[in-house]
Write a structure and sequence with these properties.
The chain is mainly alpha-helical. Helices cover 65% and strands 5% of the residues.
Amino acid sequence: MSSQFSNLVQRAEKAQIQYTRHGDKSNLHIAIKHFLTALHLPLPRHPWRILTMVALANTWKGLYEEQHASPDLERAICFYKGALSLCTPGNPNRSVVLSSLASCAYARCQLQEDFSNLMDIIHDLKEALSLQAPSHPNRPTILQHLGDYCLEVFQLQRRREDLDESVSFLRELLMFGPRECRDMSQTLHKLAYSLWTRHRYFGEISDIEEAVQYNRQALLLRGPGHKARPWTLHNLGACLVDLYGRKGEAESVNEALKYLKEVAIQWPSKHSHQASCLYNIGSCLLYRYAMEHRIQDLEEAIQCFENALSLQNPEDPLRPSVLHNLSVCLQTLYERQGGMEILQKAISSHREAILHSNDEDPEKDMNIFNLGWCLVRRYEQQGSTLDLEESIRLFKEVLFRGQIINQLRPEVLSRLAMALQERYNHSRVPQDLDEAIKLEEEALLLQSPRESGGSASLSLCLWSRYQYRGTPEDMEKALEYTREALRHCSSENPRRSKLLTNLATLIWTQYKRFHTAEDLEEAIKCHTEALKLQSVGDPDRSTTLSNLGTCFSTRHHDHKKSIQDLDQAMYYNQEALRLQQPGHPLRSISLDSIGVCLHEKSQMQRCSDLLEEAIQYHKEALMLNPIGHPNRFFTLKCLGKCYWIRFEQQEHTKDLKEAVQYCQESVDVCPPDDPTFATTLGSLALLMIKASDVFPRSYSSQEAEALFKQAVCHPTANVRERYDVALSWVFGRDGPASIAAYLACLELANQFIHLRPSVLSRRQLLCGKLMPLTVASNAAALTIENGDLRRACELLEQGRTIIWSQLGCYHPYLDELRETDTELAVEFATLSEQLQGLAVARDMGESPQRSMMEEARGYRIISDRWNTVVDRIRRVDGFSNFLKQPSFSILQRSAKNGPVIVINVSDWRCDAIILRNDMDPVVVPLPETRIGDAVETVNNFIIALSKGSVGRPVVIQILRDLWDEIVYPVVNKLQELNIPPRSRIWWCPTSVSALLPLHAAGPFRRNQLNLPDIYISSYTPTLSALVESFRQISTSTPSSQPSIPRLLLVMQPETPGQIKIPSVLEELERIKSIVPSPHVLLNDNGTYEAVLEGLKTHSFIHISSHGVQNFEDPFNSCFQLHDAPLTLLDLIDARLPNAQFAFLSACHSAAGDRARPDETVSLASALQFIGFRSVIGTMYAMADIDGPQVAEEVYKHLFRRVRAGEPESGQLVDYQDAAEALNIATRALRDSGVPVERWINFVHIGA
């Protein structure tokens, strides 16, 4: 029977050989028949039985491979398992049976598409491998299968250990030589694929580097024509794409593109992996676009992804990635070129990508995130709140899922914040804004300093909160963050234009707060640069155009009144409108902006057609702003203004009623907490005043007054906006306003000016059109008319010399406070010193914008602390009025040594108020004086002086007119009040009268006395300044011994770079002949440092040098010293406790500020401010030859007791004699025949 078994097996083997030779499947059936017959013999222990079962299984397997009939495969598996059951451990055939069984089992997995038992197959192969020696000929095959199957298991279960085993098995296989490893290129290819897969899932950069290396080796073995070469090219290209993603090496992308495009050409269009190839080409192009920003790469990438999608079925596992990259490309293209069609395609692609993504797929979170941002962008274009709400939900979903990688979390937080900010802008719910800021701050903490996005978007949130709450700190931080972001953003970065736009918006807001022309110019510059960086289709381009239009319109309105600016504004707004198709959420704003330009232009050109066109634009805007729309109130306000203009032009009362109706509706729909509510109320109030004159029964001026009062106290409006309303209140009617209007205007003007840290910027603001010259004078005129002269003096004091008054707050008399609370006095003095340092600062350093921002922040912080300390001081007993506006009882002290005459020149009446000590003030009406005439007189006076002797008759006539119209009525009243001749009087002129030579007025006729012959005149810029001079006198420590003051002589006859002044040496000699032992700083000894040091140690000073009056910037007026100019700013920064008398023998040393005469910014006033109680100066350029004679006469009188050796009351020299000394000197000049324009030049200021 054993021989029968052997014969059957041999006959089966012969049939197998015949099949192998001829391919006749009947031979396989014969072999199977013989094998089965042999196995059915009762010989269970036959030594060939196991091999026979394996041979039968192999035959069934071969038959399966021929016919692909699953029963054949099942029979093969069955006999392999039977053979395995007979192979006890240690059986040399066990490894062969295990590997053969595994091979068939895997074939069954493929046939049934069920790989659930793949782990069992791997287990069998591992056992087979463990039973083989390292040199076993079948070992490479098992290693090959294990490498493949472990990779498949990983793709099913995503376990790292399976992928690690795949790599390990393939590495061992690679150690076999080409003879044992039958296809080395395939092994290299598969190992590279496993390493690439491990990198894609676990991110180890060494894996992708190795994958590239093995793919390159495989490619060398698969030369041109090799059937598998396209696969290796494809995989190598894909690996290089990922390598770029990790290392950012540009050559990786370009090399990958070369390989992948070669594959795309070799593979037919319907190739099963053509879609994958196109996907990788598109990815390469997307990466290259990120490096080089070439729009062609982006467009070609989109084409590749779209072609890839067309080749894929909906279940393709690569489809979500293709959709993801396509949507990213479309989204990026939209950001570059705009176009709603592109944005819609991006949104659709994102939605489909999300639909096809698994929850575990990291790209799903990116798709949700990107979809959210696309919806925000669509909201910006179409205004659908449904898009905005969905975007917020999507951003929150990404954060909630928690699978977004850490690097992207800051961006998700920031985009969610932006969406919340947009919702705040629409619905004005403060909680949205607060949440947005918290999110942005969290995002910023997660970012590196060089990442620009978070800080820039946080700045926008802070800007919105500043708009809502008006907190300066928010604005300062917003500017700081945006400038920092822009500093890290290169000119090639596509985000730069957005950052520039954001910065311009912030600077524009700062301009609205401070009204600094430099801010407006910088905003225009930033918007212009942003516009150059934006393509024609850029979705933000219309916003930039609109903002530029607003800037030029504002420059026209606030500064230049230039038709060119108005035309520029019109052009930019029309260009913005052209890009904003119907449905665009900003279209109504552009329509309103064009309307504003048109009605401004209609007023300039008196053109009714332009006004009608403006009304049509506003009405179209109103149709786009239904009830509830946040911009509706602005459109209504614009319509109200247009109808008011039309009423003024055509006087149809219907237009006036419509104007009021539109403005009333504007107030009704404007949210009360909106910062612009104050100006909206102001517009209605202004119209109500006008309407009450036309329809007194329908409209009430009292109602308008109530609206104005509400507007100027509005809590969320900034100081600038409330001040604008106060100006409308004051100047909105013909004739005087109410006293409440003037008080509000003066108070807000002080607050507005005080926002600026430096005196230079404060004067710049005062000289602008926002600060009318006559507010204080008009307010005083109203109270004079009502008989309240005391209040008139207080108002004039409050509204004039604002710069000096604010600086003076840093140097009050603190001796009494030190006795009460030394610590509080020291704290106040320290903060005051810091504020003064900022006030006189000039150097902006290397970065003017940043320095100005830091200066403003530093000033605000110190100023807030200073205000807190002032409040604490006012709570101390006896100091409740500390630094408050002085009452009349204090101001009246200015007249303790003689009458003070306040000259008030207003728009509708002019008066003189005479103050006397302990007596009621007296008013002297000046009916012949008009403000317009006074301005003309000043101009004529300046022109006449420039003509020398030719203009002399005009000068004399001006002095006569001043006598007739102002001075004589005052002198007449003084005489009625029994003010004796040769008494001292003080002039305190206001407005343009401060530029007139009142001290020299007279009839200038033979046998008639001029003012210098009747009274001894001095000037004081304010009553407070004179009170301070007298207070210093009363608090000076009396000397027990008669003393001679130390005189410092600063003499500069030969200043480098200046014309010589020969008379200075003569002046020096004359003074030295009178004054004992003066300290002389002559020529090169008169340096900047020496003079400043000398000012501190001498109570009397005399400066004879070139004086320069800077009419554009009076604070830079100066004395020309040997090595450097001594400017007015330099003087302000000095405090001189010993100062008493100053003689400024230099040109223009007491010249007034022509642009703002009420501020009296001159070298003489600066010396008075820093402590000199008595100052002699010149109103204009002096004749050099007059200096010696005037100086001689002045010092003769001042030092007369020293020369006579007769001390009087313990005081040899009294600086209070300076006014009389100058009067004597100038009359001596006059009597010696010196022309009038020369001797009237010298004036005395102070005590």
